[in-house]
Each structure stands twice: as C-alpha cells, then as structure tokens.
Write a structure and sequence with these properties.
three-stranded antiparallel β-sheet; globular; 174 residues; alpha+beta; Alpha-Beta Plaits
Amino acid sequence: MNDSVILHISGLGATAYLLEENGIHELTRRSSDMNEKLRERIQVEVLPGDVLNPDISSDDISFDVQTLHDVTGRLIQRPQWNARFVHEPSMISLRVHSDGTRQSLEERFVPLMKSYVSAYQSRGPIDEGRIIRIYETGSTGVVRDRRTGIRSGRVDKIFRGHLDRFLRLPEINS
C-alpha cells in the first residue's frame, strides 16, 4: 500500500468518532472479462490532531526535500516538492508530494509525522488482516461492514460521504 491521501477532519470528538475506521478497507470491482474480481486494499489511519507523546522531538525527525518541476498555472508558477520525513529512533518514514515553499513543508508535515509516530507507538502497526469494510462496485454494488454486519446497496451515497450508518458513536463515561 503505497498511495495514500491525508484528510484533515476537525471538530468536537472527530478523532474519537472516526477512530474505529483504522484498518484496511477493500475496494472490489469486476475486471473487463467479468470472470475475476480486482481487489484493492486501502489503509485508513486516523491520527490525532495534537501530538499524544510530547517526548517526540523535532530533532529526531530528519527530512530530505527534492524539487520536482515548476507547475505552470495561469498566473503563477509554483514549485513542486517531493519530501521524505524520517523519525530516526523508530525509522518510521513519511513520503510527501506537495507544493508551496520548503519551509511550509516542514511546518505542515513535521506535526503530522509526530502524530503518526505517536499513534504508532501507542497502538502498534495496523493489522493487515483486519478488513473494516468491503466496497463492491458494478451493476450490483454493495458495501458490507465486517464489524457490524450492516450492508447497503447505495454505494454512490456512501462514496459521497454518507457513512453515519456504519460509524459507531464512542461511549461516553460520566
């Protein structure tokens, strides 16, 4: 699993609400010859917005930045960067392809790297065999949640973000 997308979701209880989504999500579609299914596994990780472990120092994170090429827009040219951040003690790495300045890369992604390392230290690696949800596309598309057993034939709505049916609210101890 090399490709990933980072979404920043904020709000009261957002991390607790989405924490159960940690794991593998599987996208299944029929191949062109209709005899076999093509499966793609997508790793979902919910990271806290603030760093859990304050012992993670910025000095422990090294990064290497390479300029790709300038992207020509209608009004300005923006440099594209390919960066690799490494937390030296744990050897956890993060590869980033982004635009902006070199300094903005450090400002945006060092806190993300700290969150990633902190989450990894607190829970360990994601279990590759733990499939959270299976999304089957095609003429008879269906989404099956492996944890709750809930099924839905409205794949289009689910891809547009209507996930409330599948998400479990965290228990609040008072």
